[in-house]
Amino acid sequence: MGALAGRRVMVTGGGGFLxxxxxxxxxxxxxxxxxxxxxxxxxxxHRDGIERAISDGRPDVIVHLAAVVGGIGAxxxxxxxxxxxxxxxxxxxxxxxxxxxxxxxxxxxTVCAYPKFTPVPxxxxxxxxxxxxxTNAPYGLAKKMLLVQGxxxxxxxxxxxxxxxxxxxxxxxDNFDPASSHVIPALIKKCIDARDAGEDHIDVWGTGxxxxxxLYVDDAAEGIVLAADRYDxxxxxxxxxxxxxxxxxxxxxxxxxxxxxxEIRWDATKPDGQPRRALDTSRARELFGFSAExxxxxxxxxxxxxxxxxxxxxxxxxx
Length: 319
Description:
By secondary structure, the chain is α/β, with parallel strands linked by helices. It is 43% helix and 15% strand. The protein has ten helices and twelve strands. A six-stranded parallel beta sheet has the order 2-1-3-4-5-10, sandwiched between helices. The chain has a two-stranded parallel ribbon with strand order 6-9. Helix 2 (47-57) crosses helix 4 (79-99). The radius of gyration is 19 Å and the shape is globular. The N and C termini lie far apart (44 Å).
């Protein structure tokens, strides 16, 4: 029987993209109850909302997924908001969990916390070796402070706080809003919209030379639940697949899967973001037995198919 069996688990952000996958995966760990505080009922940016959520949920374990996030454009437009809201949510929540004697706290960090020029593959020990890439530094640093808080609380109070660092996520249910989406849903939507409109090209930010690593959402949920169940240590742990792909290669696959046959026009006046991003995933494998299983092509195909189907339902267009 695992450590989550018979426990009450609270998942902040449990109604979101990753949250829904984590809640679904938690069922196999046999918890007594999974409580998902929704933002309309509990504003986790304020202490009273956090305290009510903990009082109502009475958790033994908290998995903190709630975050204010977006792609490069959203990060550029909201640096203050992204810093403050992510920092205050996490700091207040960890402190309230300590006061309430919650048995375990799982913090979900971000790959944006790594230095801009981290040697590839990113190893967890390199996280303090420089300043993050400028476009997402406020968000990355807010999350990084939660790593410091968790380690400090473990040292002073003996609190079981763990810190996980997932790489870029994707999959069915992702955010396809052009104002805030990340690169995979943004490119899928651009290609499908242009295909359906008969347009002869799409414009894409940057040069295409930057590389990224992508983790399928169901694999990420598996890693989070395994860590919540098995890991108890101060060191941050990467969650990823250990392979990178350039944005230029990525869009080639998306073009093929969506059937868009127009031109790709690169807008080099827009930022590429961090030059390279790929994780060393050995620590997760060694500490709690996590290895991602979904192939990138299969995951992308499922994401494209999901978007085609849900877009048709939402707009009345042929699916």
